[in-house]
Every structure is written in structure tokens, then in C-alpha cells.
């Protein structure tokens, strides 16, 4: 078997992924963000065009099941923009869903994830997902998180799919690794830990990187969090401690107002127009290339296993 990144247009040689926004959203809907839904295909196309003009070649969309993924739209958006898109299966925190609907989902979660990874989203009518999105809580894991992560681990073992983790305000990374990798047997190099820059505990960052997981620093769209103003310090600390090969960067645009093309920004292009030049000045072009090209190709590529 050869390794591939599973995009909405099919499996891709990792060497062809290119400059990658490793954690973002083109479509997203949640009761926690009323009036700020990302649900306009034309706005998504404009944002992708702006990102492509800045040099972007790939986006991993972490929007999971039940949060307005509009997976069918991703296919045409990828074709029109020339940007590789990776879709997600999985579930977010329980607060993003109707509780009665969650109760009906729990027993068949692993099968749902496997089907979306191998057959296609929407009962096979849409593209295949290329990753599994799960979520922890603030400084801990509740029963919902443990159920979803157990199903994600089962789906990983069946398919080989990478697992991306939302960490609430950047907390709980070591709890997640202990569960996913320690108890459930997911190789740490198949796990991407998101939002860790929002809780800039450098010791936790180093321990997670030493375990072999990828760390996705993201969130320029979240001005009220510890994002941009501590981002470079965290990246430099990890690079200097020998973990530059574990780092990813994403925009995590979660509201319409945060888009660059149709909102107030900074949006997807900021990763390349704003952050990348600073990385080059601080760490050099080779390290920036590692973070934007090489690491995402490794993190999201896998030897996909066929399932009956």
C-alpha cells in the first residue's frame, strides 16, 4: 500500500499536497455561533481564491458530522479553486448538538466514521472524508469525549485515518494522548492536537511533541485568545528543542466575520501573507517550508485500509 492524503477529489500523493492550511473551516454551523454561520458557497469560493492567490494549495477542513459541512459543495470548490481540500468525519463537543440526536448516534459512531472515510459522506453520495475530528473539554474529558474518541480509535484501526483533536482553550493534550494512544492504541503520529497555542504551557507542548503527535497551532481568527502574540514564541521554543517536524499551522476561521474576502479578516490568506514572512525571518525559509509543506503531508497522509 502507498501512503496518500484523502481529498474530496480522491487520494493524493502527499508530495503533491503543497502549501497547506492544516486546520480551517469553509463551512460551519453551530448553535453556539448564531448569526455567524459559514454557509455561503460564494463566500467560501472567494476565501479560497484569496488563499490561492497568496500561495495556498491545500486546506484541511475540520468541520465534523452534523455541523453544516456541505461536503458536496467542497468537491466543486476544490475543482474551481485548484486547492486540495480534505473533509472530516467525527463529532465535536456535545454542546454543538441536540442531545436526543446524540443519544441515537452513540451506538453506531464507529461505523458512521468508517463509512464516511471509505464510502463517502452523506451515505456515499458525497466525497470521502480524509480525517476524524474529535474534541476534549476544558482541562479534562467528559463521557461524550471518551465515547467519541473510542469510536474514532476504532475507525482509525479499521481505516488508518488520522485523528484531529479540538482542545478547549488549548487544554487537556496529555489526557487526550493518554486515552487515544495509551489506552486505545492509536499511534501518536496519527494524532493532530489542535489549539495548543491557546494554552502556552511549553512543557506540555514539548511532552506532546516528544510523544510523536503533531501540534496544530491555529486561530489567528481568535483575537481574544492567546494566539498571534504568543504564537511565534511557542513555535520557536519547539523548534529549538528539536521538534520542528511536529508543527502545523492553521487559520481556524470559524465565523463569517473572520473571513478576509467577505468579512473583516484576517481569514485564510493571513497564514501566508502575515505569519509565514515572520516565520521565515525568525527561523528561516527551510523551517517555514517544513511547517507549511512537509509536516502536513506527513500528518494527513496514511496507508488507507480497505473495509468491507
Topology, element by element:
Elements: E1 4-7, E2 10-12, E3 20-24, H1 41-53, E4 58-61, H2 71-81, E5 84-86, E6 88-90, H3 99-105, H4 109-118, E7 131-135, H5 143-159, E8 163-166, H6 173-183, E9 191-194, H7 202-211, E10 214-218, H8 228-240, E11 247-250, H9 270-283, H10 285-300, E12 301-302
Helical content (DSSP H or I, runs of 4+): 25-40%
Percent of sequence in beta strands: 5-15%
Number of helices: 10
**Sheet with the most strands?**
6 strands, parallel
CATH superfamily: Metal-dependent hydrolases
Residue runs with pLDDT of under 50 for 5 or more positions: none
Structure description:
- The chain is of the alpha/beta class.
- It has one domain (4-302): Metal-dependent hydrolases (TIM Barrel).
- It is built from ten helices and twelve strands.
- It has helices at 41-53, 71-81, 99-105, 109-118, 143-159, 173-183, 202-211, 228-240, 270-283, 285-300, and strands spanning 4-7, 10-12, 20-24, 58-61, 84-86, 88-90, 131-135, 163-166, 191-194, 214-218, 247-250, 301-302.
- The strands form three sheets. A six-stranded parallel β-sheet has the order 6-7-8-9-10-11. Strands 2-1-12 form a three-stranded antiparallel β-sheet. A three-stranded parallel β-sheet has the order 3-4-5.
- Strand 7 (131-135), helix 5 (143-159) and strand 8 form a beta-alpha-beta unit.
- Helix 1 (41-53) packs parallel to helix 2 (71-81), helix 4 (109-118) packs across helix 5 (143-159) and helix 9 packs across helix 10 (285-300).
Amino acid at each position: 500500500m502507498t501512503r496518500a492524503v484523502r481529498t474530496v477529489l480522491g487520494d493524493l500523493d502527499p508530495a503533491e499536497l503543497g502549501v497547506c492550511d492544516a486546520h480551517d473551516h469553509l463551512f460551519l454551523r453551530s448553535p453556539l455561533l448564531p448569526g455567524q454561520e459559514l454557509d455561503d458557497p460564494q463566500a467560501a469560493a472567494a476565501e479560497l481564491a484569496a488563499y490561492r492567490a497568496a500561495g495556498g494549495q491545500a486546506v484541511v477542513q475540520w468541520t465534523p458530522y452534523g455541523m453544516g459541512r456541505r461536503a458536496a459543495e467542497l468537491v466543486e470548490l476544490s475543482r474551481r479553486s485548484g486547492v486540495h481540500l480534505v473533509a472530516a468525519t467525527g463529532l465535536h463537543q456535545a454542546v454543538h448538538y441536540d442531545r436526543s440526536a446524540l443519544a441515537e448516534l452513540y451506538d453506531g459512531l464507529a461505523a458512521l466514521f468508517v463509512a464516511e472515510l471509505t464510502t463517502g459522506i452523506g451515505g456515499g453520495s458525497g466525497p470521502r472524508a480524509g480525517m476524524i475530528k474529535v474534541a476534549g473539554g476544558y482541562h479534562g474529558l467528559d463521557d461524550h469525549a471518551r465515547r467519541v474518541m473510542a469510536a474514532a480509535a476504532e475507525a482509525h484501526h479499521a481505516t488508518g485515518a488520522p485523528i484531529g483533536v479540538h482542545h478547549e482553550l488549548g487544554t487537556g493534550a496529555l489526557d487526550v494522548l493518554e486515552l487515544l494512544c495509551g489506552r486505545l492504541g492509536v499511534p501518536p503520529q496519527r494524532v493532530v492536537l489542535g489549539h495548543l497555542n491557546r494554552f502556552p504551557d511549553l512543557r506540555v507542548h514539548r511532552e506532546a511533541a516528544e510523544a510523536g503527535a503533531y501540534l496544530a497551532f491555529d486561530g489567528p481568527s481568535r483575537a481574544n485568545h492567546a494566539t498571534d502574540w504568543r504564537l511565534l514564541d511557542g513555535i520557536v521554543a519547539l523548534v529549538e528543542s528539536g521538534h520542528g517536524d511536529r508543527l502545523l499551522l492553521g487559520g481556524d476561521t470559524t465565523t463569517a466575520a473572520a473571513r478576509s474576502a467577505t468579512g473583516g479578516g484576517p481569514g485564510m490568506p493571513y497564514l501566508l501573507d502575515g505569519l509565514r514572512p515572520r516565520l521565515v525571518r525568525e527561523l528561516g525559509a527551510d523551517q517555514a517550508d517544513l511547517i507549511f509543506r512537509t509536516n502536513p503531508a506527513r500528518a494527513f497522509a496514511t496507508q488507507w485500509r480497505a473495509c468491507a
